[in-house]
């Protein structure tokens, strides 16, 4: 880290910006071991060729739920080493066990990650979760120096209110939130807390409107930045730059031109198999995908054929 706990918000305001993508984790075809070399090659492509602002390492897209703690730490190390300061690294330290969360976050601090993202806790039978959730993040904030990005999604069993997020935003090293909720909620939180944290959501389709209408500077984050971009076709990067420069009409034209690719990707994606489908699409782009680990199921041959057909009609330009 090159900032202190009390400098985290200022550091994030300046550096935690642009398009950050959620990485996937390649596993070996035969053993399902973590494919470290393949992951390193992917990170180099995403940072060196696609020039993404940063990477969100080891989240749900990265199948952290099927990885050991040591594998997760190793993926963090490879990302930091490979990025080598050319792009930011935010490590996903989410877990149901608080000791694991703290262990992963302290490791992230030690190896030079830029920030950590920590999902709101999974709470069973919770009818009034907000006091528990506030105390969860207060406890983490007190014990960590690194900047913390919140993450809330219906998967945990509840949605954090904008007012709760605003209260947590007062903690000194809470710097951002990936708020996977409807637009009314994240608009409300932006109004409340824009002076203290970056507010973002996973939808690439809404990113441009959120830059223009809500003044957002951070896309945090999902897989479109590397699934819908190539060496010679970087329209997400392009419309983001245009919007940041105030060239909104031109940015909209570029954003809208990507709709055939978005539609093709969505139409062939089987319900319930996002990880296997994403990895296969990545392979069609020439990157390292590999199989998913159980409990995630693989694609059938028919589903792979449908993905190839969708990729062919996506309109993505290849080198």
What does this structure look like?
With 319 residues, this protein is α/β, with parallel strands linked by helices. It has one domain: TIM Barrel. The protein contains 14 helices and eight strands. Helix 2 packs parallel to helix 3.
CATH superfamily (homologous) name: Aldolase class I
- Beta-strand share of residues: 5-15%
Per DSSP, the total helix count is: 14
Average predicted confidence as pLDDT: 97
Instruction: State the CATH class.
Output: Alpha Beta
- Architecture, CATH level 2? Alpha-Beta Barrel
Biggest sheet character: 8 strands, parallel
Question: Concise description?
Answer:
The chain has 319 residues and is α/β, with parallel strands linked by helices.
Topology:
Layout: H1 8-15, E1 18-22, H2 36-49, E2 54-57, H3 69-83, E3 88-92, H4 98-111, E4 115-119, H5 130-143, E5 147-152, H6 162-168, E6 174-179, H7 183-193, E7 198-200, H8 207-214, E8 218-220, H9 224-227, H10 235-244, H11 248-257, H12 259-268, H13 274-284, H14 301-312
Parallel strand pairs: 1-2, 1-8, 2-3, 3-4, 4-5, 5-6, 6-7
Helix pairs in contact: 2-3, 3-4, 5-6, 6-7, 8-10, 10-11, 12-14, 13-14
């Amino acid at each position: 880290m090159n900032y202190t706990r009390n400098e985290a918000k200022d550091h994030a305001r300046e550096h935690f910006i642009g398009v950050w993508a959620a990485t996937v984790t390649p596993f070996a075809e035969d053993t399902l071991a973590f494919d470290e070399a393949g992951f390193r090659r992917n990170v180099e492509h995403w940072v060196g060729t696609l020039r993404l602002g940063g990477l969100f390492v080891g989240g749900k897209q990265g199948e952290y739920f099927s990885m050991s703690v040591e594998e997760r730490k190793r993926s963090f190390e490879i990302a930091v080493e490979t990025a080598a300061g050319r792009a930011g690294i935010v490590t996903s330290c989410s877990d149901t066990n608080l000791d694991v969360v703290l262990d992963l976050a302290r490791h992230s601090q030690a190896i030079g990650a830029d920030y950590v993202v920590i999902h709101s806790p999974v709470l069973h039978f919770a009818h009034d979760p907000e006091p528990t959730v506030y105390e969860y993040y207060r406890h983490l904030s007190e014990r960590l120096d690194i900047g913390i990005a919140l993450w809330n999604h219906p998967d945990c069993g509840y949605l954090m209110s904008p007012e709760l997020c605003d209260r947590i935003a007062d903690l000194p090293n809470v710097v951002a939130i990936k708020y996977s909720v409807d637009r009314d909620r994240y608009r409300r939180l932006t109004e409340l807390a824009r002076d203290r944290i970056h507010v973002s959501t996973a939808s690439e389709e809404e990113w441009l409107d959120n830059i223009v209408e809500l003044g957002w500077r951070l896309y945090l984050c999902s897989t479109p930045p590397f699934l819908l971009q190539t060496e010679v076709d970087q329209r997400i990067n392009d419309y983001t730059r245009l919007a940041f420069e105030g060239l909104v009409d031109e940015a909209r034209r570029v954003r809208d031109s990507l709709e055939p690719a978005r539609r093709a990707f969505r139409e062939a994606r089987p319900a319930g198999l996002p990880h296997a489908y994403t990895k296969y699409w990545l392979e069609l782009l020439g990157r390292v995908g590999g199989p998913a680990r159980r409990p995630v199921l693989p694609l059938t041959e028919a589903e792979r054929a449908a993905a190839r057909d969708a990729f062919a009609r996506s309109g993505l330009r290849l080198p």
